[in-house]
Amino acid sequence: MELKVFIHSSLEESAKTKMAIIDACTSDIQAAIELVIDCYKNEKKLLLCGNGGSAADCQHIAAEFMIRLSHHIDRPALAAIALTTDSSNLTAGGNDIGYENVFARNVQGLGNKGDVLLAISTSGNSGNVIKATEMAHQKGMKVIGFLGGTGGKLKDLVDVAIVIPSGNVQRIQEGHITVAHILCESVENGLYGSN
User: Fold this and answer.
1) Could you state, in order of their start, the residue ranges of all structural domains in the chain?
2) Contact 32/162 with Cβ under 8 angstroms?
3) 3-state DSSP call for residue 74?
């Protein structure tokens, strides 16, 4: 395929996916916003986990909550921890208890009743994210899933499933970060928009 055609088709596919999110995900996005607002109103925190590009998204999203997204809103930090950032923790866990358990172990240690876990998996089938979700429920936490395709196994395990309507991992990841920005901006406005 000619490069110019590929660029055009990629951008077109991305735009179509974003438009499809409107019909497929709006009510679930609203539910996620309400869940996170309630979490912060009750002085709880957000934990995030995912693999690969989704791990990077966890760090990105946690930073938006901790620092700020909307520069016109003066607000305190909103507690958010990406469980993907501590190399010593992840490598010790992978070596000693198995990589499939690293996120669950961190949810066990850091999660509390009323906290929210944002579980990111483009397939919805990441074993370590599934185990983290199960641990979160044991701890009395709510779970939001950022998923893709059919939603995989996680779709029925999470409290709110935001399933990007695409089978293309790149488009799913782009959808996830767009939804994350909507989530963060809406939470900021909901909590501090009058400031």
Assistant:
1) 3-192
2) yes
3) coil
Alpha carbons 172 and 123: distance in angstroms, whole number? 9
pLDDT tens digit string along 22-69?
A: 999 999 999 999 999 999 999 999 999 999 999 999 999 999 999 999
CATH for 3-192? 3.40.50.10490
Token pair belonging to 169: 């991992």
| Cα 58 to Cα 80: distance, rounded to the nearest angstrom | 9
